[in-house]
C-alpha cells in the first residue's frame, strides 16, 4: 500500500491503489475463501445450489449524463457483475443516501429509470433502504445495489479464469472509453461537437446468448473503472500468462479517440459500463463473434488479441505503427467518480 496515511481519490480508481487498499485492509481483516477470489461476484454454495452475489456503490458526477443517469448505471453495473460470472441475474436490492434539498423530480426520474432498466434485464428489485443526510454531507444522491444470480455448475470457473490456456482469443464486444468520456464531457461542460454517449447497458441477454452457443468461454470481466488495460494486466499477473493485444483491432469511436488525444487520456484505461472482455478458446472465437454481432451491444465485437506463453505475467500492446508497449495496471486516478 502507498505510504499515505489518508484516503486519496486514486484509491477509488479500480487500479493499483484500489488493489493495494483492498489487500492491505479489507482482505486482511475480512479474509475468507470467497473474498480471497476477488472476482466481480462471490460464488456461493447454498444447499447444493450455486449462487452469484455482488454489491456495488455509485457516486457518479454528474448524476445525469449522455446515455444514462446514476440509476441506470446502478442497475447495469450490478447485473453485469453477475452476468460476467456466468450467472443469470435474478434479484436486486437498492439503497439510497440522499442529500437534504435534492429534487424530488430528479429522484423520481432516477427511480423510474432503474425500474425500466431492471425490467429490460429481467431482474426485480426486492428490497431497499433510504437515508437522508444534511445539506453538504452528500453530493445529491448515492446509490448502493446488491444482486443475486443463479449459476450452473459448469460456469463456476469463468470468473477465476480457471481454464485459461495459451492460444485463447481475447474478445471485446464493442468500442472502448465511451462512458468515461461522456461523463468527462458532461462534468466539465465541454463544448465537444462529437456525439459521445455512455455505453451504459445491461449485457446479461447478450452474454447468455454466447454461453448458449459455446462451452469454451474461459473468462469474462466487465471493464469498468480502470478500463480494459487494468483487466488485462490483472489477468496476466494473476495467472502468470502473457497477454498480447493488437491496437489496430481495438474498436474506439472517433469522437472518443479525438477527445482522449485532446485531453491526454489513454482509451485503454478509460471506464466502460457496457463492455465485457471475453477470453474464448480459439476454436470458438468466430462463432462467438457471430453471436455477439446479433446483439445491439455487440455490433462492433472483435478479436483484439490472445493469451500467450511469451512474457508471462505481462500484458503487451502491439501499436498500429509496429512498436510494443506494456499494458500495466492503472496507477493513480485518471477520472474520479466515474461510476
Total number of domains:
2
> CATH top level of the largest domain?
Alpha Beta
Topology, number of strands: 14
Number of helices: 8
Order of strands, widest sheet? 9-11-8-12-10-13-14
Quaternary state of the chains: single chain
Q: State which percent range the strand residues make up.
A: 25-35%
The N- and C-terminal alpha carbons lie at a distance of: 23 Å
Helix content: 25-40%
Taken from the alpha-carbon principal axes, the silhouette is: globular
Could you tell me the mean pLDDT?
A: 94
Rg, alpha carbons:
19 Å
CATH T-level topology of the largest domain: Phosphoribosyl-aminoimidazole Synthetase, Chain A, domain 2
What structural class do helix, strand and pairing data support? alpha+beta
Amino acid at each position: 500500500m502507498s505510504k499515505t496515511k489518508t484516503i486519496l481519490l486514486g484509491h477509488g480508481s479500480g487500479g493499483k491503489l484500489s488493489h493495494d487498499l483492498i489487500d492491505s485492509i479489507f482482505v486482511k481483516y475480512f479474509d475468507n475463501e470467497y473474498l480471497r477470489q476477488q472476482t466481480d461476484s462471490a460464488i456461493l454454495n447454498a444447499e447444493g445450489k450455486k449462487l452469484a452475489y455482488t454489491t456495488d456503490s455509485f457516486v457518479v458526477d454528474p448524476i445525469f449524463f449522455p446515455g444514462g443517469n446514476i440509476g441506470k448505471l446502478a442497475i447495469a453495473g450490478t447485473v453485469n457483475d453477475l452476468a460476467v460470472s456466468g450467472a443469470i441475474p435474478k434479484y436486486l436490492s437498492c439503497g439510497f443516501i440522499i442529500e437534504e434539498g435534492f429534487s424530488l423530480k430528479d429522484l423520481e426520474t432516477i427511480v423510474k429509470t432503474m425500474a425500466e432498466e431492471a425490467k429490460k434485464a429481467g431482474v426485480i428489485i426486492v428490497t431497499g433502504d433510504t437515508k437522508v443526510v444534511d445539506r453538504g454531507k452528500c453530493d445529491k444522491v448515492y446509490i448502493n445495489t446488491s444482486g443475486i444470480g443463479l449459476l450452473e455448475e459448469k460456469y463456476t470457473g469463468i470468473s477465476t479464469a480457471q481454464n485459461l490456456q495459451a492460444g485463447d482469443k481475447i474478445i471485446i464486444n464493442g468500442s472502448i472509453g465511451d462512458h468515461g468520456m461522456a461523463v468527462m464531457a458532461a462534468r466539465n461542460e465541454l463544448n465537444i461537437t462529437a456525439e459521445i454517449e455512455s455505453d451504459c447497458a445491461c449485457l446479461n441477454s447478450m452474454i447468455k446468448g454466447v454461453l448458449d452457443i459455446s462451452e469454451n468461454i474461459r473468462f469474462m470481466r466487465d471493464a469498468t473503472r480502470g478500463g480494459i488495460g487494468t483487466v488485462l494486466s490483472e489477468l496476466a499477473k494473476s495467472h502468470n500468462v502473457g497477454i498480447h493485444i493488437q491496437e489496430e483491432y481495438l474498436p474506439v469511436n472517433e469522437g472518443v479517440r479525438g477527445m482522449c488525444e485532446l485531453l491526454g487520456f489513454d482509451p485503454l484505461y478509460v471506464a466502460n459500463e457496457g463492455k465485457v472482455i471475453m477470453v474464448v478458446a480459439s476454436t470458438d472465437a468466430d462463432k462467438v463473434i457471430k453471436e455477439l454481432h446479433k446483439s445491439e451491444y455487440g455490433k462492433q465485437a472483435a478479436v483484439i488479441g490472445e493469451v500467450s506463453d511469451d512474457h508471462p505475467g505481462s500484458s503487451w500492446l502491439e501499436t498500429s505503427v509496429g512498436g510494443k508497449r506494456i499494458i500495466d495496471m492503472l496507477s493513480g486516478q485518471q477520472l474520479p467518480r466515474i461510476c
